[in-house]
């Protein structure tokens, strides 16, 4: 049996004490592919690249233009598609990320003028998926911010917060706030499982096999995984497979639904149809039809 490589949780760049926020442009073969969390708020925009993002207990395909706003302690990772990591090596993943800690605003955040921003930060503790016109306008402001300095950068930063605080183009990712940050040792263990599933979801993964990665019995592993991710391992595995199927169905590649079924790790078409409708609310054929009409 293959073993997953143990990787330490990625550490983001520290915000200098002299700064209100930190903005970075990411240009890598892949984004942070390890499960991690931090105390700072994070606004992340995908400029180039595609893959699967894991935020808290949600799994979703990401592509160019994907914009998320996360509050403190929400564990997350963006796993780039395999073809970005293989020859030819001219493909890159690009993104813009803003980190900030509201502790530097303690004298302002409770003032009336900041009431909308305060509400926004409360929403961000559940995680926000931002889309539509707001995502497009925020993308422009973030690109401009990358080249601004001094007072102009602060003004632009607050323009972004003001835009996010007034939009209705968003969806909350969770129904509860993450109160306790995940310890590094737990992040590393979950990373082992996530990495292994990303590599092997197209085939059957017995519980005995994945539990052995953490030197646990299947029963102990099941309890541990559910406690740390708020979902069972079987649910998580099915979710990853469904999201892969969604990605394939939404492209214009000539693949029939039978092919997509088996390439996503399902053994029978009937089970694929049943699970897809349970997760997405429509059949694979209906889902594909949405994109064929675009």
Automatic annotation (TrEMBL):
Signal peptide interval: none
Alphabetical list of InterPro entries matching this protein: AraC-bd, Homeodomain-like_sf, HTH_AraC, HTH_AraC-typ_CS, RmlC-like_jellyroll, RmlC_Cupin_sf, Tscrpt_reg_AraC-type_HTH
SUPFAM superfamilies named among the record's database cross-references: Homeodomain-like, RmlC-like cupins
Ranges for domain HTH araC/xylS-type: 191-290
TM region positions: none
Organism per entry: Parapedobacter defluvii
Protein name per UniProt: AraC family transcriptional regulator
Keyword Amino-acid biosynthesis: no
Pfam families: AraC_binding, HTH_18
Sorted UniProt keywords: DNA-binding, Transcription, Transcription regulation
